[in-house]
Here is the input.
Amino acid sequence: MAVDQQHDPDVCTRVDDDITRAFQVLGKRWMGPIMSVLSNGPVYFVDLRKAVPGISERMLSNRLAELGAARLVVREVNEGPPLRVSYRLTKSGEALSPALRSLGQWAREHLPGAERSSRC
Here is the structure.
């Protein structure tokens, strides 16, 4: 069977610029788990650290700053007393929630180790 379409190898071998931009932010370690926890609503820093096992305070702080710079997360200070800092998703961050849920479902169905995952 002959195909009349011309094949441009440069088109097939070049990654989409939008995918590159998305993974420059979300492809860093801890970003997905942080966004996933925040997709359930605002979370205090200390509770966010507990919800993402293995992340240090410094790394969490750095990642939250990066997500803030990408306009996906907002930092809110509750004056207290005691002074407490919480984080929540922006509208842009909330727009990622369906994609994150789909990605989690895909992982349960296609990646090894799904039987060990814990969900609330």
In short: The first strand starts at residue 43 and ends at 44. The helical segments are 9-13, 17-26, 31-38, 45-51, 57-69, 91-94, 97-110. The chain has a mean pLDDT of 88.
